[in-house]
TrEMBL record:
An example Gene Ontology molecular-function term: transmembrane transporter activity
GO cellular component: plasma membrane
Superkingdom of origin organism: Bacteria
Main localization, broad class: membrane
Transmembrane segments annotated in the record for this chain: 12-32, 44-68, 88-110, 122-143, 186-204, 235-252, 258-278, 290-308, 320-338
Locations listed in the record: Cell membrane
InterPro entries: ABC_transp_permease
Name the UniProt record assigns to this protein: ABC transporter permease
Topology of the protein relative to the lipid bilayer: Multi-pass membrane protein
Keywords in alphabetical order: Cell membrane, Membrane, Transmembrane, Transmembrane helix
Length: 343
């Protein structure tokens, strides 16, 4: 009976998804098309959460800082006016450099907050967002001189809230084209996400992965075995931040628009909720949980506003279902996790 406890949350969401689809009365093509886009935009974010959980640090809500690194990289290449293929490569390089720097800072802070990592990472995410917005609202155009003044607001200070990244949307549209439901796209982003999943899996099976698992299970014993606990925990955060930065680049590339100040908001909550919906806990998570969770959670996320609208005959009320589902998932998973821990 104990082994089936891991399937309580996924089973619950599977039932809710089926009921939601029935209530929403939408076509399978619509759902499949939306799932393709959401898988491409959010897949790597879920993978970015796995290593910190394995290290015993719980949900890393500071992946928003990794997303900020990705946004800065994309904003800089848009400002520089680089050709899309070269620009995307340069954006990746910028993002990797920034995410490694940010990840080390976050990891060092979280090592000072052992046992309270989730709360600390959430606060770090809020602080990082405020600093980022301050720099690009006030610093850009004053202290930082842009290459292209057109990206600034009419007053000449601060970046516009939305920048066009449409040129990046067609980077590989004609390479291995596919049609999934109502969506037309490419097989390339799916291959990239699967490869990232394989890389994360290989990391978990490597020496670094062994150290991360050992630290997550028992920090005191790991220290006695000669494992540098703080460095291992910091490494898991650096890798998580780096993956989040690459995930945000894929999100922007698929969307074709850079929402400068809001593009990274709530992705930590939605990613955590999706991972938990896939059967992960605050102590254990794997690749399977990520891929199951993204389909279950986002299926419900897609149909819930339409289902709420049809049930209550109120379009505005239907939209509240999105936030209710995201935060409700975390609360529900927390209750299940606490109950399993007590048992």
């Amino acid at each position: 009976m104990k082994k089936y406890k891991n399937y309580y949350v996924p089973s619950f969401f599977l039932i809710l998804s089926i009921l939601g689809i029935m209530a929403a009365k939408v076509s399978s093509n619509f759902i499949l098309g939306e799932l393709y886009n959401r898988f491409v935009r959010n897949g790597i974010f879920l993978l970015a959460l796995i290593l910190p959980i394995m290290a015993g640090m719980g949900i890393n809500f500071s992946i928003t800082i990794g997303a900020i690194a990705g946004q800065i990289g994309m904003l800089l290449v848009i400002d520089m006016g680089l050709e899309p293929k070269l620009g995307f490569v340069v954006a990746i390089i910028f993002s990797i450099i920034l995410s490694i720097i940010f990840g080390n800072i976050i990891g060092t802070i979280l090592n000072k907050a052992k046992g309270k990592e989730m709360i600390a990472s959430m606060v770090i995410g809020f602080l990082g967002t405020n600093l980022y917005q301050l720099i690009f609202m006030v610093g850009y155009g004053t202290v930082i001189k842009p290459f292209n003044p057109d990206i600034l607001l009419t007053r000449g200070i601060g970046v516009k809230s939305m920048l066009d990244a449409g040129n990046y949307r067609n980077l590989y549209r004609n390479i291995l084209p596919i049609k999934i439901g109502d969506a037309e796209g490419s097989l390339i982003p799916i291959i990239i996400i699967v490869l990232v999943g394989v890389i994360v899996y290989l990391i978990t099976k490597s020496k670094i992965g062994y150290h991360i698992k050992a630290v997550g299970e028992n920090m005191v014993l790991s220290e006695k075995l000669g494992i540098n606990v703080d460095r291992t925990r910091r490494t898991s955060i650096v890798l998580s931040t780096l993956l989040a930065s690459l995930a945000q680049l894929m999100y922007i590339q698929n969307l074709g628009v850079l929402n400068v100040y809001t593009g990274h908001l709530n992705l930590d909550i939605f990613s955590a909720a999706a991972l938990l919906a896939g059967g992960a806990t605050f102590r254990k998570a794997n690749i399977r949980n990520a891929f199951i969770g993204i389909f279950l959670f986002h299926t419900l996320f897609i149909v819930s506003p339409l289902a709420g609208q049809n049930i209550f005959k109120n379009p505005a009320l239907g939209e509240y279902f999105r936030s209710f589902i995201a935060y409700g998932t975390i609360v529900f998973a927390l209750m299940i996790n606490l109950k399993q821990t007590e048992n």
